[in-house]
């Protein structure tokens, strides 16, 4: 399958690498490929610049958001939550229409410093904003409640643990569940919460996730819903 992974951060890199390792064709999308490739500094978390990652993954290509979305049969949103709608607008609604869009982004608002707050929150979510802005897209919120290394390798966390799925389109959620199975998620670990409004709940797990990160001291943990 042809996947457009929109986003050049560590999540985009991790998802793109996993998809490529599974035999999918992958194009990563960015605002401006030239300036993305020209970055030489590590990102805010100390990860090496994107160009270094791309050199090590020569089967993956870098294009603009627009070109990537036009080419992909399915789209993964791994952009910063505050810029996601903007990134998808530049991808172009015609290029997204009819496609499954896996939304991994969280609407973290760093404008008031750390820890970040959420915007939107409570009565709205980024997943819903994206679905409202692009009504012809099949938005499936998933994987946003864990560190990206666990997204593609659930065995990093011992025992059964949970990945949530939210979206309006049943077939799209089935397609995403199949992809999750190929990433190593067991059928029983996937909880379908319902329509896209349920993304409010999974996005609102982020404040507790961030506090757990501080308390546990590492990111190799996940939520497990016992008795589900
Ligand atoms: P990030 O630094 O949050 O986002 C980088 C991407 O966002 C880049 O591709 C950048 O475009 C794009 N972007 C930023 N501002 C933009 C704007 N105003 N307009 C258009 N595009 C914009 O990357 P990340 O750390 O990999 O996280 C990606 C997403 O996954 C976030 O929403 C995050 O909350 C979520 N998430 C992260 C983890 C994790 O393990 N880190 C876990 C769960 C969910 P350019 O390429 O053009 O610079």
Throw out a few tags for this protein.
228 residues; alpha/beta; Rossmann fold; 8-stranded mixed beta sheet; binds NADP nicotinamide-adenine-dinucleotide phosphate
Outline the structure in words.
It is a single chain. With 228 residues, the protein is of the alpha/beta class. It has one domain: 3-Layer(aba) Sandwich (Rossmann fold), CATH 3.40.50.720. It contains 11 helices and 10 strands. The strands form 2 sheets. An 8-stranded mixed sheet has the order 3-2-1-4-5-8-9-10, sandwiched between helices. It has a two-stranded antiparallel ribbon with strand order 6-7. Strand 1 (2-6), helix 1 (10-21) and strand 2 form a beta-alpha-beta unit. The longest helix has 14 residues, at 170-183. The radius of gyration is 16 Å and the shape is globular. The two termini are 32 Å apart. The model has no long low-confidence stretch (mean pLDDT 97). The protein binds NADP nicotinamide-adenine-dinucleotide phosphate. NADP nicotinamide-adenine-dinucleotide phosphate binds next to helix 1 and helix 5.
């Amino acid at each position: 399958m042809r996947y457009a992974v929109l986003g050049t951060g560590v999540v985009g890199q991790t998802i793109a690498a996993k998809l490529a390792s599974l035999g999918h064709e992958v194009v990563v999308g960015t605002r401006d490929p030239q300036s993305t490739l020209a970055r030489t500094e590590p990102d805010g978390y100390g990860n090496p610049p994107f160009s270094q990652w791309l050199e090590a993954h020569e089967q993956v290509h870098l294009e603009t958001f627009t070109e990537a979305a036009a080419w992909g049969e399915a789209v993964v949103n791994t952009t910063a939550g505050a810029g996601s709608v903007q990134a998808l607008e530049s991808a172009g609604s015609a290029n997204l229409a009819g496609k499954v869009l896996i939304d991994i982004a969280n609407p973290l608002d760093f404008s008031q410093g750390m820890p970040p707050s959420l915007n939107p929150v409570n009565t709205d979510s980024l997943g819903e904003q994206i679905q409202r802005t692009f009504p012809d897209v099949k938005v499936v919120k998933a994987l946003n409640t864990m560190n990206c290394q666990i997204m593609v390798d659930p065995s990093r966390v011992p025992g059964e643990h949970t990945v949530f799925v939210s979206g309006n389109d049943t077939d799209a959620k089935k397609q995403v569940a199949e992809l999750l199975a190929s990433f190593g998620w067991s059928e029983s670990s996937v909880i379908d919460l319902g329509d896209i409004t349920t993304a409010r709940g999974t996005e609102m797990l982020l404040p507790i996730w961030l506090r757990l990160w501080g308390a546990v001291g590492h990111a190799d943990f996940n939520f497990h819903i016992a008795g589900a």
